[in-house]
Design goal:
With about 280 residues, this protein is α/β, with parallel strands linked by helices. It has helices at about 15-30, 50-60, 75-85, 110-115, 195-205, 225-230, 235-250, 255-270, 270-285; strands spanning about 5-15, 35-40, 65, 95, 100, 125-130, 140, 165, 170, 175, 210-220. The chain folds into two domains: about 5-225, Alpha-Beta Complex (Spore Coat Polysaccharide Biosynthesis Protein SpsA, Chain A), CATH 3.90.550; about 235-285, no CATH class. Strands 1, 2, 3, 4, 5, 6, 8, 10 and 11 form a nine-stranded mixed β-sheet that branches. A two-stranded antiparallel ribbon has the order 7-9. The longest helix has 18 residues, at about 235-250.
Length: about 280
């Protein structure tokens, strides 16, 4: 077995104080291998984070809060964390964890480090993610060439496997990589303001021969945040931009055309969403 490298956790936060406190308590139990928790605050003006309650939960795990830009997205926050680690000479594994995740077993970090010890440095690794009911979320999958290009996703049945599963994309909810192992260093593309940035990163790194792997033996729990449940007009607009840009970059022309037509039809049938979708179309070009 290879030597386990230090593990840094990066979480991108937006109005997430209470969720982060719960995650801090979980991380505080993971003393082995964890070298630092970096939280990127994407609401420094409207809801600045108070780091002291988090530190009390963390114990000996150091916490660093980086100030992001108000309202910036997930990819921009991760890139800020990656940039900091690059400047400080860190070249180990970085575990991206959503603030609304939890680590129920208490040894997820150790098992994750053991699982990646023999993997190539360029590997991009996702863990299994379960919802509040214990059901495995479809947080990873494959890209097909047809109209339903995201149809094949991991399921509870896949969680019964004992070996890493090779696929095409992983959710950024719980994702592990070594940014400095890639040339150029791995970064999320800022052209995706909301969603699809994690899928795009996996597909781009796979084009450079990086294995994209899902680990069923490591499971984190996920409590979806409020923003994921109640889409706002701005969220619809930004997600439309990302969706259209993803189609143009990664899908055949006929799929792009039919998907765009379907999106426009949905705007006509759902007037309350129409304005945001139209703005997304205009800004996506």
């Amino acid at each position: 077995m290879g030597t386990a490298l230090p593990l840094v956790v990066v979480s991108v936060a937006y109005h997430s104080q209470s969720s982060l406190a719960s995650l801090a308590a979980d991380l505080g139990r993971h003393q082995g291998g964890l070298t630092r928790w970096i939280v990127v605050d994407q609401a420094p003006k409207s809801a600045p984070l108070d780091p002291e309650p988090l530190r009390r939960h963390l114990g000996s795990v150091p916490l660093l809060v980086l100030q992001g830009e108000e309202g910036d997205g997930f990819g921009a926050g991760c890139n800020r964390g990656f940039d900091y680690l690059q400047k400080t000479g860190s070249s180990g594994w970085v575990w991206l964890l959503n603030p609304d995740t939890s680590l129920p077993q208490g040894d997820e970090a150790r098992r994750l480090l053991e699982a990646v010890a023999d993997l190539p440095a360029q590997a991009v690794v996702g863990t299994a993610v379960q919802d509040a009911t214990g059901t495995i979320e479809p947080s990873a999958g494959w890209i097909d060439q047809g109209l339903n290009f995201r149809r094949r996703k991991v399921s509870t049945a896949d969680a019964l496997l004992h070996e890493p599963l090779r696929l095409d994309w992983l959710s950024g909810c719980s994702l592990l990589l070594r940014p400095m192992a890639h040339q150029p260093p791995a970064r999320f593309d800022p052209c995706f303001p909301l969603y699809y940035e994690d899928m795009d990163l996996c597909l781009r790194l796979a084009q450079q021969e990086a294995p994209v792997l899902w680990l069923p033996q490591v499971v984190v729990s996920h409590q979806k945040g409020e923003g994921s449940v109640t889409p706002s007009s701005r969220r619809i607009e930004l997600s439309t931009i990302s969706y259209l840009r993803f189609l143009r970059r990664h899908c055949p022309p006929w799929v792009r055309l039919l998907r765009q037509l379907r999106l426009l039809l949905s705007a006509l049938l759902r007037p309350r969403r129409a304005g945001a979708i139209w703005r997304g179309f205009k800004r996506s070009g």
